[in-house]
Design brief:
This protein is 33% helix and 17% strand. It is α+β, with helices and mostly antiparallel strands. The chain is globular and about 40 Å long.
Length: 87
C-alpha cells in the first residue's frame, strides 16, 4: 500500500492451491479492509497481511514496513512505475 493505494496483492504462499482463489465478493472485502487499515495507520508505505477466520470474517493479521512485502508479487519495475504514477 502506498498512501491508501493498493500497489499489488497476492496470496501469501507461493504455491498454488484452491485457497488462493477469491470470489469477487471476497476480493472486494479484502481490498476494502486493506485500504481501511492503511487509512487508520496513516503510514504512507506499508505491507498489510489479511487472513480469513473459519467464520469467514476477514481480519488484519499483521502490518509491516513495506520493505518486508513479498517482492515476488510485483516486479521492481512495476512497483517503481506504480509509485511514480501515484506520487
Amino acid at each position: 500500500m502506498y498512501n491508501q493505494h493498493i500497489l499489488k496483492y497476492g496470496y501469501y504462499w507461493e504455491a498454488e492451491d484452491d485457497l488462493s482463489k477469491l470470489t469477487k465478493q471476497e476480493e472486494k472485502q479484502v481490498l476494502r479492509l486493506a485500504v481501511l487499515a492503511s487509512e487508520h495507520l496513516r503510514v504512507p508505505y506499508i505491507a498489510i497481511d489479511i487472513g480469513q477466520l473459519e467464520s469467514g470474517e476477514w481480519i488484519v493479521i499483521e502490518t509491516a514496513d513495506a520493505q518486508f512485502a513479498g517482492i515476488c508479487q510485483i516486479s521492481a519495475l512495476e512497483l517503481w512505475n506504480k509509485l511514480k504514477d501515484i506520487y
